[in-house]
Specification:
Layout (H helix, E strand, L loop, with lengths): L4 H13 L15 H15 L5 E6 L3 E2 L3 E2 L3 H13 L8 E6 L2 H4 L5 H14 L4 E5 L2 H12 L2
Parallel strand pairs: 1-4, 4-5
Antiparallel strand pairs: 2-3
Helix pairs in contact: 1-2, 1-6, 3-5
């Protein structure tokens, strides 16, 4: 049986979502820009932004497989605020695609990012923020957008 576009895109997105770039070691930077750039380029190609859909990505890594390293959450918070405050974004959906590290590893700040996005969606005259953080999130979004 041939895969539909939605099934193919779901499979590709989930393969990418489930890649962990490898644990970092204590005192070593959490990851290079190349890893984040590769994830972004591939995920943006899969999710296909449109005139009314923007896609941004964030990858997380872990020291010792326990918690998220680095300032990925801080950078994302800034992106969310900037998007929500831009009146030109009214009617636009801002899709935030992350890797599995955010659901696998501990981050006291990640739940606050999700809450921030939900709150901004109620306060903003701009667009809508949607975070893809689980396999189910990716499946639902892609199949609704590209068909089952």
């Amino acid at each position: 049986m041939t895969e539909t576009m939605g099934q193919r895109k779901t499979r590709e997105a989930l393969e990418l979502f489930n890649q962990i770039q490898g644990d970092t070691q204590e005192g070593v930077p959490a990851g290079g820009r190349d890893e984040g750039n590769d994830f972004r380029e591939q995920m943006v190609a899969i999710l296909e932004p449109t005139a009314t859909t923007e896609v941004t990505t964030t990858i997380g890594k872990s020291t010792g497989g326990v918690r998220i390293d680095g300032s990925a959450v801080d950078r994302l918070s800034y992106k969310l605020l900037r998007f929500a405050r831009d009146p030109a974004k009214a009617g636009t959906e801002y899709v935030v695609a992350v890797n599995v590290a955010f659901s696998r590893y501990d981050s006291i700040y990640w739940t606050e990012i999700v809450a921030q996005a939900a709150w901004l969606n109620t306060q903003s005259a701009g667009g809508t923020i949607r975070i893809l953080q689980t396999e189910d999130d990716y499946r639902q979004y892609i199949l609704a957008r590209f068909g089952a």
